[in-house]
Hints:
Blueprint: E1 4-6, E2 23-26, E3 29-36, H1 49-66, E4 74-81, H2 87-97, E5 104-109, E6 118-125
Helix pairs in contact: 1-2
Amino acid sequence: xxxxxxxxxxxxVPQSHLPFSPAIQSGNYVFISGQASTDREGKIVSGTxxxxxxxxxxxLKAVLDASGLGxxxxxxxxxxxxxxxxxxxxxxxxxEFFDEPYPARTTLIGCLGDLLKFEVDVIAAC
Length: 126
């Protein structure tokens, strides 16, 4: 069995008081927990869909940086979008962070309730 290694949080990685690690390395992969529109203390920061989506990706960048990785190392992305009407904006914002060849991707819509408009989790290769 491959040993799991907790990724040490960096100064810019949002903290959480919930029972999960921001990221876990196992073998040659880093599994990054869902990142949402939160501040550094883990408090939700509400805004427009576009603001929440970009803040979520910026939080993801902080975890990738702490892992010694970047968006180019991401091999799978799972996106959670609050409403169908946000999909076009999401696809535009997504291309601000990911380049071709794009990672494998799953996008779920209507699964977040009222608390968040967007959340993302990824698997990256190291």
